């Protein structure tokens, strides 16, 4: 009963004492035996205290505990629970409070999960996102925006967009979305250091259920790769047009000359027909190379893999290239390790040898040397074609695998090259999951290294 003498029950103990005292004062004139009166009053007081203690434990303490629990729930602590006895009114109240806390806890967990999912989605999207409210304050910004434009998330939060955004295109997009209340889409160029990036920005106004403007969302997408692909497509079309126009012009010109009476001279006719044949053959090679590249670049392209021996691939090629080398007064040296066996597409690997050796012969002047070496190296078959030719400038090496790129355009056209040979080699090596490296020095020669997995 110690709790009776503590707040807040002690005040009730005092009140009961005065009630008992008052009762004694009322009964005092009617009682002859004061001892009996005192004993009755003491017993009455004790009964009151016992009843007070019972009510305290049964009602007051549980209600105080319930109040404390509700205060914790108000603070956001939904894990608190009350002991309950469903047979009592207080127990029923505790059950309701526990149910409320449990429901709030579940709702909070669902909300946190959805918020986490939303944050994950927003921060891992490939586009920059900015959410701006109707007052112009930034409410949300994702990690991609920080990567694109720099800064920290906390510096943007709750700031006016025109005060914190440095990019004019972003500011204008927000303004247009607010003023026009329509979706807008524009593109702009952005520099990070010396690197240039192309971005597409979309401004999307946000409306509530009453069609009132509540803000805007900016979506910024990096289209640099698309721009590069577009540029490559335009260059490709221009190069193909140029490569085809040259032989077609020659064929048409010499054919017109023959039709206009040039066939009277047999020697001239033979020369013209030979030129027409060579130009048409050049067109055929170009078209075949383009088709080869197209097949290699298709998503559903599959290698025809077999276990092959390098000597089986090169046995028919070496005599042919020996002949071509001798015709140009070049020396072809062959160093081939025995029993180099690996899994590959035989016809594609043969094309690697043809294109590399053909390039070496075409770009090496008379009395030069060409070396073909094949060996096992670690987990690869190493194919090395070296020459003592014209070499390649260091700042041009990164471009030699581009389509139609030629180190020496005049020499390449004179030898019938299409400018696609090394691009084809690169694609063949890549689909075999190999690698290709190049070493070169102007006027000293070039060394091409191809590594194909064993």
TrEMBL record:
This is histidine kinase. Pfam families: HATPase_c, HisKA, PAS_9. It comes from the Bacteria. Keywords: ATP-binding, Cell membrane, Kinase, Membrane, Nucleotide-binding, Phosphoprotein, Transferase, Transmembrane, Transmembrane helix, Two-component regulatory system. Residues 114-150 form the PAS domain. It is found in: Cell membrane; Membrane raft. CDD domains: HATPase (cd00075), HisKA (cd00082), PAS (cd00130). GO terms for molecular function: ATP binding; phosphoprotein phosphatase activity; phosphorelay sensor kinase activity.
């Amino acid at each position: 009963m110690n709790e009776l003498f503590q707040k807040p029950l002690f005040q009730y103990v005092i009140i009961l004492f005065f009630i008992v005292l008052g009762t004694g004062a009322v009964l005092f004139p009617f009682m002859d035996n004061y001892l009996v009166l005192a004993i009755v009053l003491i017993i009455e007081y004790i009964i009151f205290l016992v009843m007070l203690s019972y009510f305290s434990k049964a009602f007051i303490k549980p209600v105080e505990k319930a109040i404390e629990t509700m205060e914790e729930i108000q603070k956001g602590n939904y894990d608190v629970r009350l002991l309950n006895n469903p047979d009592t009114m207080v127990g029923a109240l505790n059950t309701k409070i526990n149910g409320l806390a449990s429901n709030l806890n579940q709702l909070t967990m669902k909300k946190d999960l959805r918020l986490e999912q939303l944050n994950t989605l927003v921060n891992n999207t490939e586009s920059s996102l900015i959410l701006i409210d109707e007052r112009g304050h930034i409410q949300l910004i994702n990690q991609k925006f920080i990567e694109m434009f720099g800064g920290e998330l906390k510096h943007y939060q709750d700031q006016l967009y025109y005060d914190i955004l440095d990019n004019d295109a972003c500011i204008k997009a927000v303004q247009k979305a607010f003023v026009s209340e329509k979706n807008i889409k524009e593109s702009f160029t952005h520099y990070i250091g010396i690197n240039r990036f192309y971005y597409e920005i979309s401004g999307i106004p946000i409306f509530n259920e009453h069609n009132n403007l509540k803000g805007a969302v900016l979506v910024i997408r990096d289209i640099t790769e698309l721009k590069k692909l577009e540029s490559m497509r335009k260059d490709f079309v221009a190069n193909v047009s140029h490569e085809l126009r040259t032989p077609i012009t020659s064929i048409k010109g010499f054919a017109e000359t023959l039709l206009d009476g040039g066939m009277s001279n047999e020697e001239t006719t033979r020369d013209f027909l030979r030129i027409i044949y060579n130009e048409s053959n050049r067109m055929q090679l170009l078209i075949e190379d383009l088709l080869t590249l197209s097949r290699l670049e298709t998503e559903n392209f599959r290698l025809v893999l077999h276990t092959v021996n390098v000597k089986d691939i090169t046995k028919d090629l070496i005599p042919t290239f020996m002949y071509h080398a001798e015709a140009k007064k070049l020396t072809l040296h062959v160093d081939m390790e025995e029993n180099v066996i690996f899994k590959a597409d035989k016809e594609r690997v043969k094309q690697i040898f043809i294109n590399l050796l053909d390039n070496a012969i075409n770009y090496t002047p008379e009395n030069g040397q060409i070396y073909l070496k094949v060996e096992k190296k670690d987990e690869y078959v190493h194919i090395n074609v070296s020459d003592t030719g014209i070499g390649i400038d260091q700042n041009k090496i990164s471009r030699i695998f581009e389509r139609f790129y030629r180190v020496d355009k005049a020499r390449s056209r004179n030898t019938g090259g299409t400018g696609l040979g090394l691009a084809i080699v690169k694609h063949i090596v890549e689909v075999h999951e190999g690698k290709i490296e190049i070493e070169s020095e102007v006027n000293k020669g070039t060394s091409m290294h191809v590594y194909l997995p064993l």
